[in-house]
Amino acid sequence: MLKVRLAATLLVAASLSGCAAQETDRTTMAASADNSRLNPLGQPNMEMKTLRPQAPSELTVTDVRFGQHEGFERVVFELDGGGSPGWFVDYADTPTQQGSGKAIDHSGETALNVNIDGVVYPFEAGKDDPRIGVVDAPKGGVVTQVVNGGTYEGRCQFVIGMTSRKPYSVQVLDNPTRLVVDIRD
């Protein structure tokens, strides 16, 4: 009986090992009929959105990805570390860098200014800098690119360049922790 359980455990472990493959493409396309009917998270609207972290967090932003779905586009900020992020997200035609006030160049006619709270510098968390600079979105959508505006006093700033203002929503997903911005197209 023990040999059967061990064999079953090894079989499951072997089949799951392929699930951990590193994705090099930052675009996640709807791959099946079920994914193509995915709905935006939350209630998209044009209003500013904010939520303070409930407890001290020590997160780092490790990656930015895009998803294109029927009726909306998704920008995902991958997070690593302890706690849950807060955020302050609003439209800005000419976004400026926190702390310096320097303009942040982006492609598109407008931008969503995404500030993620509860973050630390990667070196404070013992991690290498992920070097997220400018990440271009797939062509033909509302989202044109994401620009890293830097980290300052526990807040990491990103600018989502867009062709026009559209209703959007912001949510946190867990396991792994991600801040998700869904934008109607």
From TrEMBL:
It comes from the Bacteria. Pfam families: AMIN-like. PROSITE patterns: PROKAR_LIPOPROTEIN. Residues 29-38 have a biased composition (Polar residues). Residues 1-20 form the signal peptide. Keywords: Signal. Residues 29-48 are annotated as: Disordered. This is AMIN-like domain-containing protein. Residues 60-184 form the AMIN-like domain.
